Amino acid sequence: MATRKKAEAAKPAKVSKAATLRDKDVAGLQTEIKELQKAHFGLRMQKATQQLSNTSTLRVTRRDIARAKTILAQKQEAQAAK
Predict the structure, then answer these.
(1) Closest CA relative to residue 18, chosen from 64, 74, 75
(2) How far separated are the first and last CA of the chain, in Å rounded?
């Protein structure tokens, strides 16, 4: 049991999606949002044609889009405040 705890402690911390999005600039966030929207559209079409086996990916992409839009709005607000 002690070896398991040591192995888990040695793993690096997982970087969240929000942290990677915060590193991008405004233009990078806008392109990321467009890519996510295209991916979400493709998933919706797959669902409509009964080809999507894992429907939870729709929820994940929808939340990723919202996360990116939130960070984009925060960055734009910060730029406007300067």
Answers:
(1) 64
(2) 53
Comparing CA positions, the residue from 76, 58, 59, 65 lying closest to residue 17 is 65
Contacts of 13 (CB under 8 A, 6+ apart): none
What's the predicted TM-score (pTM) here? 0.79
Residue with tokens 């806008």: 30
Contact yes or no for 37/65 (Cβ under 8 A): yes
Please, are residues 8 and 22 in contact by the beta-carbon 8 Å criterion? no
Question: Six-digit token pair at 33?
Answer: 């949002």
* Predicted confidence (pLDDT) per residue in 5-48, tens digit: 555 555 556 677 899 999 999 999 999 999 999 999 999 999 99
